[in-house]
Amino acid sequence: MTDFLRISRDGAIVTWTMNHPATRNALTGNTAVAEIVAAAATAAADRSVRAIILTGAGPVFSSGGNVKDMARFAEPGLDADAVRNEYRHGIQRIPRAMWALDVPVIAAVNGPAIGAGLDLACMCDMRIASESATFAESFVRVGIVPGDGGAWLLPRAVGAAKAAEMAFTGDPISAAEALACGLISRVVPADSLLEEAQALAARIARNPSGILRMTKRLLREAVHNTLDSVLETSAAYQSLAHMSADHHEAVRAFIEKRPPKFS
After folding, report:
1. Measured between alpha carbons, how far is 218 from 232 in angstroms, rounded to an integer?
2. What are the beta bridge partners of residue 140?
3. DSSP state of 7
4. 4-27: per-residue pLDDT in tens?
5. Is the separation of the CB atoms in 18 and 56 below 8 Å?
6. Contact 133, 110 (CB under 8 A)
């Protein structure tokens, strides 16, 4: 029995629901880090998982760090090195686990995604949001910096200038503004958010698992590698893809004018 994540499955699609509405699905001061890392490892090891949906229970996607829990940083005897190591061995495990996960992940943002909650959404491959969702890189407003990788994640989602504006002001943006700057790919009514996420996940999950995972890995590699490096990796992956039973089935199905049946 998990405490923070409620995990459900429908065929090849797994849904992770952050289930601490009383704390607005805060990511610190609880078991969130360990549970998200464990869920990512489980999904990575299960080759039958083809898509993941991440959402929040209640009216908030995630409020990020638990500000009430941060009061302990003012306690006597706590030094900066201890805090640094707490981040390194705590919340920073989430971006590492999410970045290493080769299953496509959809963030279904049901409400405010604040601070580390926004950064968690940015760790996903795709983001769709309800009309009531808002987004804020709000660390500066509580006198801290993005300690969970947001300075790396957010510019890749919205561009350097917009990320700087959000990080320096801490101002929230609406779902419509998030759509306009490319942070999310669509805005939907709140009562159809999960339905839309599940439909997107189903379109992904109808494709072969191994090819999905290699495609995601190529997209990840392209973030920080040169074109030549990505081309070389693409050629290696393509050699594996062409030799796969799923590719052979796809070609036969195309020739025979029928839907493919992937393993």
Report:
1. 11
2. none
3. E
4. 999 999 999 999 999 999 999 999
5. yes
6. yes
